[in-house]
Design goal:
Blueprint: H1 16-35, H2 40-47, H3 51-59, H4 66-75, H5 90-99
Helix pairs in contact: 1-3, 2-3, 2-4
Amino acid sequence: MSGILYIMKEQVVLLPKAQKMLSEMGENLKLARLRRKLSSTQVAERAGISRATLWQIEKGTSTVSLGAYYQVLFVLGLDKDILKLGGDDVLGRKLQDAGLLVKERAPKKPKI
């Protein structure tokens, strides 16, 4: 290896449902770009990414960084949408409520 450091990028394996959702998100971003009549070159330049990376985002590739996805959202004026992720955590609140302890009542006083 003669002093050269090689970094292996770990491949993330997604379940089919997760991959479908990423693909749908990529398609939504592409449609948003087209509605704004922006070329892929314009969006890529403004986002500070390559056209190839934008193409991967629009395909829903899982190896693209979240930062790159965010930059595209920002360029399209959709960056606030990222705050919706996990914002309405219905399941989490139900789990939390189920784990809360119910206070025990004081023992009843004996009747005299």
